[in-house]
Amino acid sequence: MTAFVSIALVASDAHAQRQAAAPRLDQQLTALRVIDPAMIDTSVRACGDFFQFANGTWLAHDVIPAAYSSSGVGRDMADRNELVVRSVLEQAMAKRSSPATNSTQRKLGTFYASCMDSVGAESKGATTLRPMLARIDAITSRAALLTEIAELRMSGANVLFGYVPSADPHDAAHYIVWLLQSGLGMPDRDYYTDQGSGADSLRTAYVHHIGTLLGLAGEEPAEASADADLVMSLETELAKASLTRVAQRDPAATDHPMSLAQLAQLAPNVDWPAYFRAIGLAANVAKVNVASPEFLRRASELLAATPLHDWRAYLRFHALAQLSPWLSSPFVNEDFAFSANFTGAKELLPRWKRCAQETDRLMGEALGQAYVTRTFSPEARVKARAVIDDIREAFRARLMRLTWMSDSTRA
What we know:
The chain has helices at residues 2-19, 25-32, 50-61, 73-94, 104-116, 118-124, 130-137, 142-154, 190-193, 197-216, 221-240, 245-248, 260-266, 272-278, 293-305, 308-323, 329-343, 351-375, 378-400, 407-410; strands at 161-168, 171-181, 257-259, 287-290. With 411 residues, the chain is α+β, with helices and mostly antiparallel strands. It has a domain at 126-326: Neutral endopeptidase , domain2 (Neutral endopeptidase, domain 2). A four-stranded mixed sheet has the order 1-2-4-3. The longest helix has 25 residues, at 351-375. Residues 2-22 have low confidence and may be disordered.
């Protein structure tokens, strides 16, 4: 939705500027927030340091908002647009009982109202987690463990390995299942393997975070602390077998198509037909692409060798980590405090912003439809189309002047 909003805002602002009585160019640029001449550092020669010349005054005076890790015109546009999104969602929430049961408007309103129910979240605390935690605690076999891993993965928890439908690297006309390395509570494998005081401090903070969430969910302090160490140990093994970010950027390093028989040979401790059924795929999946064979091989080993108690602790934590931002304040505050180690944010976003972003993440198409209905009038559509047509025409004109390009390529 962001690209569309940018075009719409530019089109709308540009039209408003054309209607004015020929303001100066610097006034037009300031109003459009494209270039603000006041932000230029004229004490620096443009030919000597153009970046400092163009941005120096802005860099000296801009303050990153406490709830964010960056600042800029894009951030301003996003904030402005979120106010519109908030209005759309609050209207849908207020009228959620009126539209038809399966209507987009009702779904948006119901979802946003549920997210905004801070009173309900505070009163319920961890009680809403009891059925899920009881299900995890009831795991007594490797088969039940795999079923629960699939269940939590379906609900969005970051457990063990991931999957995604994507194009077949060798047949772009078809999609296949990609199996991906996953299952870490910190953003990257390097946080588990790097050496030094900074890395050690972050790992200590992570173990504390794991124990805190487990304690908030009902574990005794000693048990939560011991389980946190077990979770960290299990994730460290997964991290050691994970590809680095650099390796993941190499298409050849993640191109490993396999039949189901080959997959079973690589990771024999996973009942793949049962797992695929549990995540909603056909049991007769014929072909997959394994992005990281070493990771999947090690995950299979750990599924067989790691005590079930350790796996239950791992699953409890990851289920809690997924839901903590939407539970009572102790969970929310702990989730934010730890995530701030990676984002640099000093304050938690207001609840309405978090709920608007979550609605966009999970119901983006529906929210985009409601947004367009509210904001994108037929007149605005004409203006946006004119902007797009101008860009296409400018691009076409440049193509026609490229002497190195053949006529057939231009066509």
